[in-house]
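The pair is quoted verbatim as follows:
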Amino acid sequence: MTATLPLLETVVVGGVALLFLVKSAETTVDRVLRLAQHYDVPDALVGMTVVAIGTSLPEIGSHVIASVGILSGTLDYTIASATTLGGNMGSSTTQQTLLAGLFLVGFGGFELTRQFLRSVYVPMVLAFVLTLGVAWDGTVTRLDGLVLLLGYVVYAGYSLHTRPRGVALPAAASEDVSRDALVAVLGLVGVLVGAFLILGEVQSVVERFGLSGSMVGVVTLGVASALPELSTVVDAIRRRAPNLALGTLFGSNVVNPLIGIGLGGTISTYAVPESVVLWDLPFKIAVGVGLLAYLRLVSNGRLTRREGGYMVILYFVYVSGRYLFFAG
């Protein structure tokens, strides 16, 4: 009984912190979008900054807090590295397979244009390849982190010239600039506080039960951090806006590794678990390249509910394989 109560307390605190983290991120994005509309910021620029980075705030916030904790000595270097990297991989794989698959199942048939593949999908696969390249030796150094951040700058510049213009932003213009700015700042603070609480609880569980910090990160941070994208998918199905859904899902898969891991690695460096370089990234690259080949050679760019179902299955293959081979 004495061991059960601390575990229950840890689970409750961690669960509340996860919800707080996600809600804070959603609030921040909503208010910043309102401010962008108020000041008439170009849609393309907002899409590449607020929308793309905003939906990845849980992952980015977790990396920043973990790296600061590593530098200050309040978080264990190996556990914090494994947890945040596992969360990053889990979140991006959830988006790439499960959420994309659920969208296709709910929406139905959809054709990915060549422009979409060039501006969003191919950069996503290249981001995975770059991340695997810098992490292959088992560490993410500060130089590696800067390389990833530079990769995002290059992608952003390229995307601004290739993405479609005039995409409607999912928010009304701000009617009270001061209030919305204050709420946005408080929301950002909430993201960091939520990440701090989660990482502390995860480290406690990992140390107490001898679990894999990376696997715990996949099933906690990884799933929770994908919730903002899930809300976007549901809204896109309702509005019949496939480009918004898939653009957010695949675009976040560029932001997660390049900015999340890049920023965290630049601050503190990371110890990379074997699971990331031997399973997570190779799996993501194989799925990405395989689907691209299927689109170009078999389906002529069209995806249906059947392919959506296969993508959902691939997510469970990913989680099962990771648990079987890298749970310890």
Remarks:
- The chain has one domain: 4-326.
- Residues 143 and 327 are 30 Å apart (CA to CA).
- DSSP finds twelve helices and four strands in the chain.
- Residues 4-326 form a domain with the A middle domain of Talin 1 fold (CATH 1.20.1420.30).
